[in-house]
What does this fold into?
Amino acid sequence: QVQLVESGGGLVQAGDSQRLSCTNSAGLTISTYAVGWFRQAPGKEREFVAAISRNPAVTRYADSVKGRFTISRENAQKTVYLQMDSLKPEDTAVYYCAVDRAAIYGVRTAASAYDRWGQGTQVTVSS
It folds into this structure.
């Protein structure tokens, strides 16, 4: 069973850092799956941010966050993190984690490929 829970959101200033966490609340490791982070700003469509494949981990980033955000798994592989540095006001959005249970190699960027989603956590970056 996969029940994803995001945490770590909040209000920060431009230039600050923030780390989001994605955990499977059912207690099972999510290392079996590729995991992605997406975000949705008011009035905009949900967009891909970053993803990490099943082990061995391959990562992929949206151009808008490349070099600023880092996706990773903890050693116990029960949590996936999104480390966000040099945050900008345009990073303000609700951030969602999701799993792509069908992906075997690599990662996919289309939201439609991900079949289990968390409820999201709000990230607000003030200028």
User: Anything to note?
Assistant: The radius of gyration is 13 Å.
